[in-house]
């Protein structure tokens, strides 16, 4: 049994880095449990060898998993052994999962250690008491509900063969698994809120294992490009402490150290926890001094008007599906997006791998964070989506690249929102809950149409005629009355309140060289036709003073959906510089 993997072997949590960690990616034993008899038969005890092998963190439906079976298998099991390094002894050992779709139960050496619901968010458990000397065995049971349309599932289709805008499902582990040694008293998490108006950082530190009367202090060291700009040490009196850190450096009216896509400046942050004067824990992080706001109906980045040129990004890969084949693949998607003239991406129906957000932070790309929605409404759906969305906002709060939250898209899960007060109240609750968790970013209540309370009015419009688009977005009255897709932009009773207007899905032009059959919103017959059609939908929106940003559909082809600017394997359909001139006007 291999102990580490040459695939996805980078540190999985780049904004909260500890030096020591044990990667559990790689080959695991694997079994389908179509009869759902595994627990009754004692599979969780760890004594039974499973018949198949799978490469974690790739789901069994993917090629890179080594299995590539797209049939329905809703219950699956994983098993592998590990031996702790000698210097881990005497520490608390935490087992981490990046994401497991959808429900998960975990045992270590036959002892139950955790359960989690939600297919896109991380979870962890202290497994110290379950460990033994020498070899340890971890067993994972994952349960998906392939046909349940009240499940937050994003683009995963509820039928066996993908079709239209819906793609192959993901079941089980699809992000990294790792172990981490920590001290009894350690930093659980941090929350970082930049304030460019006062050149300060609000640091909220959550300390785990704190004992009454303990002499505990936290040292925060902030540096920029290797130069220390602030250092502060303060007593930790309770499990959650807040500190305002002033950055003693000169920021030349935004031309110095603020974060933008054009200048993605990042500060390094080292947090050291001291117990009785001795270092007990150390975490390395980073942050960007960035502000996203709306003033007098204008979107501002760092207090200046800013046009968002976004591309819709599904985050799918031919060989890994929801899981990128490598960290370089995630980085390359960010690079390609920028090379085509976009300054941002709307990650569509997917809570993306933190490594993607790391590269967006590092290379400079705005990101809209969006929940993976369900398709039908029910009270159980409300509980599921609410719990998972809270975890998603907490996970990604610190990323400077993330500038907007989209809890619901195109009335998915709330299909009767136009007339159903219960569904309206749920959508309002998601809006207000998100604002209560994060008051620093705009929230879009229902991206595309049938909006209730919202910070931005965002419209999905796949009109392909240039003159129609130019006329439609020449005034706010025309834009709100147009009803693309025969949908109301705002739910009656929720009037327009002067919010900025953005067209957050448009284009969708299908094009593929050679013989093809596929799906899209409109089609081009050859490369010249594709370029002309691209100009006809992008330029009217880029030139319309009313439109403060747009999001083109889409970055890449995905399976049968061939309306990407790039093919599924990331080959451009037009030269990148040609796309850039259309998208950015230069």
Beta content: 25-35%
**Parts with pLDDT < 50 across at least 5 consecutive residues:** 1-6
**Overall pLDDT confidence:** 95
Number of helices: 8
Protein model, in words:
- The radius of gyration is 24 Å and the shape is globular.
- It starts with 21 loop residues before the first strand and ends with a helix.
- It is built from eight helices and 31 strands.
- It has helices spanning 327-339, 354-363, 379-396, 421-437, 466-472, 476-481, 527-543, 576-584; strands at residues 22-23, 26-32, 52-56, 75-83, 92-97, 100-101, 103-108, 111-117, 123-126, 135-143, 172-173, 177-182, 186-195, 200-208, 216-224, 227-235, 240-246, 267-275, 278-287, 292-295, 298-301, 304-305, 308-313, 344-347, 366-370, 402-406, 457-460, 501-507, 509-510, 522-523, 547-553.
- The model is unreliable at 1-6 (pLDDT under 50).
- The strands form eight sheets. Strands 26-25-24-23-31-28-27 form a seven-stranded parallel β-sheet.
- Strand 20 and strand 21 (298-301) form a beta hairpin.
- The protein has 586 residues and is α+β, with helices and mostly antiparallel strands.
